[in-house]
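quick one, 352 residues, struct below
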Amino acid sequence: MTAAVTTADPDVVAAVTGQRLPTWSASGESDIATAAASTCRTIGQQVANDAADVAAWLASQGHVVTVDTEPRPRQRHDVRIEVSSFDEADAVATLLGGRGFERWDGWTGAAARSFRAHAEQITVARTEGHSFVLRLRWRAKPGGGRARRLLRSVFRPTEGDWTMVQLPQPLWRAYSLVRPGRLVLERVGRRDPHAAGLGPFLSTPQSLIDPLFALAQLGADDMLLDIGCGDGRLAIAAAQEVGCRAVGVEHDADLAARARNAATANGVADRVTIQHGDARHADLSTVTVAFMFLPMHVVVELVAETLEQLPVGARLIVHEQTPLPDSMSPRPDSSHAVIAPDAVTVAHIWTR
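---
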């Protein structure tokens, strides 16, 4: 890297650019790094302001919490809030629901009881404009030796276990036995490791949508597929701004309904189809551009399968906020920093 890059906040540059783009052009390297660092400082200030506002409002409601309001450079609108117990986290999450934050957990019965016993945090998010994630954490990261950590990894229930089977309320402790069975079934290919879904909904920031469309060379004759479309904003924007047809696939029924209503409200229901179901089983035969904004462990498993189903010449665009792993196969044809004044991502492009 050039000297200009290394002096433009090296931690931010390394996190946002240096670890991600496989090649650099000498002429553009410094500009990209400087823009990324500037955006991350902007995001950091936004997060600090929003976190301070949330903390002050919670205090007015009788909940004094600990939250990091230091305006340091950040890539994500994501804040950890320390609370004293599950009960306080639950109460705070309920209060925040009145301010547009939705909980990622929605367990009932035995699963809810198991979640209370084993979880370390409740996560809520607000997705208008950009995603703002609050992690209400009440339990310190457990210590212990290697053997104890291994036992926890085998027997401590998680989302996949609560989704796999609905146990009667008195048997909530049995989820610790469901977990090793589920892990074995996944290892031998008898159960889909993503049966619980493709992860919680995080919205693509509005300011990144047009640059991503430009990068994908999206045109009026294209058919766009948004895998895990959430509230449908990408598909709706494609129909409104580019004039193409679009399909969004979403596993969450409430989000799918929200996306359909949004397509109707924006006058593009004739060009936008929202499907409720598993995006991995979608018909890709007419798709010319596919988008993914999903957790990286899901992306790693979906890219090769998706490319195989796309027609020749179709483009797959993945944008993300964590680096592609070295084991990623196939590697993208190109990777690009996509930087707006208030959002930054890295987009990877594959062509079938």
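The two ends are 32 Å apart (CA to CA).
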